[in-house]
């Protein structure tokens, strides 16, 4: 990459646009994307210099903030050509991210046919499959023979998003089946399309949420899936590259939410500082107010702490163990839900597993905690003559708190999903805060039970 950057900088310095164009056109589009990342101020120049087809292919794989910066600096003619040549699904994705006035200006640059297409796609819900689909596909009739299908592909295939799959429709446009291109290529020219149909059709609805489309692609080995309306009329197709893009965005958003912040919607280094603070401060305030309940809980057990000061030594240990187990459980369940491995109806199975695993994890930590106190008591009197009682209190508390952390961390995402909220918002910090407060109550309650009449 360094060598590429040096070569391009030399050509830019010489202002040799002809050689620059030749050099860029010979690179992979991924290399040009990296060059734009390394030399962002020259991004518009690269797009202007590339041939139209290659500039479109480079532009469509750029992150939105980079796309936005580039279109602001392109010449009017290049921008018009670029927007009109973008595949419908990529164009819709770009328009969905831009502000309304910018979208309006760009729509005016579209040809009449592209404008009607763009407005139609933008009419679907923002997170629906309809926003992802492209109307560029190959459709044939069941009565055609393979010879006619191949002629149709040669005539219209160039403008299709993919020709890996051919779609069979009736005279009303209703989707009947899909056929892989290899099946068409390997039979005799006089073979009828109806003879190749097997009825194993998988389709998406234009109103389906994009998350559902991701799961369907994940479960089926397809490069593209057809999109239909409520009457099963074929509207378009969704290709796997768009699904991978959306899946990456969904994954990024979930990770950010799990970390206790709102989704940034922009690369970290590109987002405005005040906007970044705004995205983070809400959750921090909520978590801070939640942690204040920890002080309330400790104040409630103030007498016990004053009588048995040694109990205070283990508060950080108790709090962190419960929070860690809760964070582990919530992260595992959120990921399983995102992959479709766990649904709301599986709540009892999840609870049973977390009861057993939480109990075993708690026993492991409880035994280690007890042994730690026993080992220290062999060489020190820090825990006093009743060190064994202290050890049993800490050990039993760890079992209860880790068990509670595992249960709350696993059940909270399912509860939020049941209420219609985003499970990712049951972030690790949120679960940790919840378990911190309840963990102290469990700890001191067990201490009162174990030490009543002896130390308390």
UniProtKB/TrEMBL annotation:
GO terms for molecular function: magnesium ion transmembrane transporter activity; metal ion binding. The keyword Protease does not apply. The keyword Kinase does not apply. It is a multi-pass membrane protein. It is found in: Cell membrane; Membrane. It comes from the Bacteria. It holds the Pfam family CBS. Coiled coil: none annotated. One of its GO terms (cellular component) is plasma membrane. Keywords: CBS domain, Cell membrane, Magnesium, Membrane, Metal-binding, Transmembrane, Transmembrane helix, Transport. The chain crosses the membrane at residues 281-301, 313-334, 355-375, 387-416, 428-455. Residues 197-255 form the CBS domain. Belongs to the SLC41A transporter family. Homodimer. Acts as a magnesium transporter. This is Magnesium transporter MgtE. It comes from Mucilaginibacter celer. The gene is mgtE.
